[in-house]
Amino acid sequence: MHTLITPLSGWGRYPVQTCELERPERYADLRSDVARLIARGQGRSYGDAALNENGRVLLTERVNRLLEFDMQKGILRAEAGMTLAEILEVIVPRGWFLPVTPGTRFVSLGGCVAADVHGKNHHHDGSFGDHVLGIELILADGSHVMCTPAEKPELFWATVGGMGLTGIIGEVKLKLIPIFSDYVQVRHHVADNLEQLFRLMQDSAFDDRYTVAWIDSMARGAQLGRGIAMCGHHATEEEFRPGFRNPGKPKRSRSIPFNFPALMLNPMSISAFNALYYRRAGGKREPFLSGYAPYFYPLDAIGNWNRMYGKRGFVQYQCVIPEAAAFEGIKRLLQELSDSRRPSFLAVLKRFGAQGKGLLSFPMAGYTLALDMPIRDEGLFTLLNKLDEVVLQYGGRVYLAKDARLSAESFRAMYPRYDEWLKIKNSVDPQNRFSSSLSRRLGVGQIGIGGTRE
């Protein structure tokens, strides 16, 4: 296999680092005999989780075969490089859907396990790892091991949410959910402020299988946190109207061919867009049918949408605040954002259910807020440090798959099961062969004073 040394970034296009890329053509070419290695699927983690500055990055995009699909039981086994988009093309026409999906379908199966991704249904169905039946892992010594929730469960739950640091995820076995059609029954509920929005999301009369809230990040004062709760479920036979136009295979309708000028996304333009969106989306008072792609993957319709943030890129800041303090904590975060007058083009609120079993998994019972903020100057990072302080004060954590700048000290405080995870990591990777720019920035698995692991 040939290697290529080139600048590389995550989806946020920050940071950009020089990495040595290797692209295996088949499963048998996956190997772990490199001193410092991290696997990378589609590169949709936002920061440096799939970067390895001056080290090897193993591109798994061509290791993407569908190995088995039991259409009666809804069980799928595939190589980890297969994307959710490729899986959906196979399973949706046959009456099945992903049990959990993030906001883009252009991510790899292995990446979904490594980040233990969540979706709009976490408060009902948990995260991705809760539906994984088995993982084949390639360890640092080159051996292949199958781990499941029942067989080698410690290694399984260290790998789910472990950011690729326990080994190369080679194959994944996943349990799917049945659906009647490829439509979602959706209803929008308007909230004039954050308090109303929380009441909507906590009220079982409004809640649905999938619930997400868009927030106008530029709203201030009495309107702070105003937004729209978008609730939906897979359309039933009674809700599906015969003759309703089938959307067919989801396609990208347009693409951004160049970097937007830095000043295009500014407080004025974002305020105007948010006001328009609030009126239009809020005007949909009655239930309506939507194709699954526009509901689950709205930004996938725009190719290279990350170019909207300009050449310097952007940071997505996603955190979770425990349920008891969620309203107060989220309000504090939005107030800090509002006071900073720094625009967030996208602000999304979701509800989480019980904390998962993954030792480094992000979700916990509470509410998660995601903010997309363009990088204009160093003042952004000062603001993000303030947001970290708020998150820590309320007992929350930051999502590692989106992170590009969290400190090692904050990481240790946010992830209390790190020491438990590290013992398992050390047992299967004693030389810390699986390492990324993220893990080194956070001090994960590094050799400390006296030869002990930190």
Top keywords for this entry?
5-stranded antiparallel beta sheet, 454 residues, 21 strands, disordered C terminus, Uridine Diphospho-n-acetylenolpyruvylglucosamine Reductase, domain 3, alpha+beta, 24% helix, 8-stranded antiparallel beta sheet, 2 domains, 12 helices, Alpha-Beta Plaits
Would you mind describing this structure in some detail?
This protein has helices spanning 84-91, 109-114, 122-125, 153-159, 194-202, 267-282, 292-296, 326-340, 379-393, 408-414, 418-428, 437-441; strands spanning 3-8, 17-22, 37-40, 56-59, 66-70, 75-79, 96-97, 132-138, 144-147, 168-175, 177-178, 183-191, 210-215, 227-234, 254-255, 288-291, 302-303, 314-322, 346-352, 366-374, 397-398. The chain is of the alpha+beta class. The protein folds into 2 domains: 66-178, Uridine Diphospho-n-acetylenolpyruvylglucosamine Reductase, domain 3 (2-Layer Sandwich); 186-286 and 293-410, Alpha-Beta Plaits, CATH 3.30.70.2520. The longest helix has 16 residues, at 267-282. The protein is globular, with a radius of gyration of 21 Å.
Short description:
With 454 residues, the chain is of the alpha+beta class. It contains 12 helices and 21 strands.
Protein topology:
Elements: E1 3-8, E2 17-22, E3 37-40, E4 56-59, E5 66-70, E6 75-79, H1 84-91, E7 96-97, H2 109-114, H3 122-125, E8 132-138, E9 144-147, H4 153-159, E10 168-175, E11 177-178, E12 183-191, H5 194-202, E13 210-215, E14 227-234, E15 254-255, H6 267-282, E16 288-291, H7 292-296, E17 302-303, E18 314-322, H8 326-340, E19 346-352, E20 366-374, H9 379-393, E21 397-398, H10 408-414, H11 418-428, H12 437-441
Parallel strand pairs: 2-4, 3-4, 15-17
Antiparallel strand pairs: 1-2, 5-6, 6-10, 7-11, 8-9, 8-10, 12-14, 12-16, 13-14, 13-19, 18-20, 18-21, 19-20
